[in-house]
Amino acid sequence: MFTQKFCKLSALLAGSLVIYNLAAPSRVAAAPQSQPALDYDYYKAKIEPIFLKERAGHARCYGCHLAPNRIFHLETLPAGSTSWTEEQSRANFKRVSQLVSPGDPSASLILMHPLAPEAGGDAFHSGGRQFASQTDSDWIALADWVRGAHLGTIPEFNASSGALIYATNSAGSTIEVIDPSLNKVVQVIRGIELPHGVTFSPDGSRVYVSNEFDNVLDVVDRKSGQILNKIALSGGPNNLAVAKDGAFVYVGIRWGKGAVDVIDTASLKLIKTIPVHGSVHNVFLTPDGKYAVSGSLEDKIVTVIDLKTNEPVWELKMDGGVRPMAFEKKPDGSTSRIFVQLSGLNGFTVIDFAKRAVVAKINLPDQPGGHGVIEGRMNTPSHGIGITPDGKSLWVNSTVANAVFKYTLPDLKLAGHVMLPEVHPLGRPATGSVPEWITFTPDAFMYVSNSGAGSISAIDTKNMKLIAEIPVGETPKRINTLALR
Fold first, then answer.
1. DSSP letters of 156-213?
2. Are 323 and 366 in contact (CB under 8 A)?
3. Residue 483 to residues 39, 200, 205, 220, 397: CA-CA distances in angstroms?
4. Least crowded by CB within 10 Å, which of 195, 203, 310, 418?
5. Is residue 113 part of a domain?
6. What 3-state DSSP class applies to 111?
7. pLDDT tens string 366-390
8. In the chain, how long is the greatest CA-to-CA distance?
9. How many CB atoms are located within 10 Å of the residue 415 CB?
């Protein structure tokens, strides 16, 4: 699969293993980590067959890599055989291992060279774009092997930084985990078709995912990525939130009767369904953890639920379908204002929590603009909103602008914007990345999910600068930050 590159070949012939950093530049140097061993049995069972596989429109890897002058040279199959001998497989394993940076798929030539450039791979591979995306099942198998997978086991993932970014791929069956100190995907959680929202237990041991396909709450072990339990819900779920003490998970029910389901995390059982007016798209907790706030797209209602009684205490009719929200807190931790995005509004509304009333509507600037029509997203011209951990600024996505805008708090003055990457379809005009959700690390670096680009943008909020573009899976939307310390 690989072209001959003199400098790399020289390094290999010299007996040294060179690690090629093909990922986006990190904002912080990575701490040294122990490298997982590459498992031969996993290689022979799951990796070696990829080299013999006939992929539609492509020559087999084996066909190109019989040549002895290739960096990646495969042994010649015995006459009449469709597999290698044990001795040949061992020789292939040794050569392939030289093209791997153990533990790091994005620095492994075996993965990045045949990957399409649009998916984060090398600019050119004479064997063609064998993998169109990082969600290709063969690419995933290779990545698992590089990360240390063994037959019959799932390697545990130990985070090296103080936070992790989780991105659910709403049109896929994976959740990518990004280490913000590296700006790389370091773990992939699989087996949850149509994952929606994601949140965590306070101790970071569990990941909770609302599963739209099975209408369940999936409980995932954070380190191994294994699904521990599936909890049946009262209907089709959308987003979710977890109590500050971790005792309950609150899941918005979109399909079925409008409700918020309450899951007891000790027993892992649904203990109550709270009826509300309108199907629930998102559910959030107020900063003090005293209330859950749900929003309905269809009925255009914000509902506030008292978590002492698990009963609605007030609701507010809005001008449009209720989409993401962000919460401003007072010095005592209670809620001051809610910033709410609505269908059809390129901006946000402001709710005074104490007054239980809309007190302002903010329209984003007309420029930059020009996106959203071709993408068919004018019903959601602004989607994704969040407040920095220090509470000093509000950031708001705009599909129309293909940018994220900064407003200072508490005065809500526009302070600038950061442009997001464009998508360049072959033979057609460039389109926007379709930004969806915002999350922050504890040190205020911002991450934006781009559903149209299949990526996560990392932004330095202090310097107002895009610093990395991280490829993920199919149509990433909801993202969240797990702070580990």
1. -----SSEEEEEEETTSSEEEEEETTTTEEEEEEES-SSEEEEEE-TTSSEEEEEETT
2. no
3. 31, 10, 11, 17, 23
4. 203
5. yes
6. helix
7. 999 999 898 889 999 999 999 999 9
8. 82
9. 12
Q: Which candidate, 314, 309, 208, 300, places its Cα nearest to that of 258?
A: 300
Sign of CA dihedral 266, 270, 271, 274: positive
Contact of 196 with 478, CB cutoff 8 Å: yes
In a domain, 139, yes or no: yes
Q: What SS3 class is residue 268?
A: coil
Q: What is the pLDDT of residues 424-443, one digit of tens each?
A: 888 888 899 999 999 999 99
Q: What pTM value is reported for the model?
A: 0.77
Domain count, the chain: 1
Alpha-carbon Rg for the chain, nearest whole angstrom, is: 24
Q: In what order do the strands lie in the sheet with 259-264?
A: 236-242, 248-255, 259-264, 269-275
- Domain of 55 in residue numbering reads as 6-147
Phi/psi at 471 (5° precision): -65, 135
Residue keyed to tokens 């290689």 = 43
Residue 96: inside a domain: yes
Decide: 115 and 134 in contact? Cβ < 8 Å.
yes
Residue 105 lies in a domain: yes
First to last CA, the chain: 42
